[in-house]
Amino acid sequence: MIRWLLVILLALVLVSGFSALLQRLGLGRLPGDFRFRLFGREWFIPLASSVVLSCIAGLLARWL
C-alpha cells in the first residue's frame, strides 16, 4: 500500500510541475475543464484534459 501512495504522490508532483507547460499547449482550457473560486482559493478540475492525456498515453503504450 505504501508503494501506491508513493506512486500517487509522484504523479501529483509531476502533473503540478508540468501544468504550466500543459496550459501553454492548450490543455486546461477545454470545455470539460472546470475552474472556480471557493473560500478565497482557486480550484481547478481538469476532467476533459485528463481524458485527452489518458487517450494519448494509451495510444503511446499500445504503439510502444
UniProtKB/TrEMBL annotation:
Superkingdom: Bacteria
Entry's transmembrane regions: 43-61
One Pfam entry name: DUF2905
Keyword Membrane part of the UniProt annotation: yes
InterPro entries according to UniProt: DUF2905 (IPR021320)
Keywords on record: Membrane, Transmembrane, Transmembrane helix
Protein name stated in the entry: DUF2905 domain-containing protein
Organism: Paenacidovorax monticola
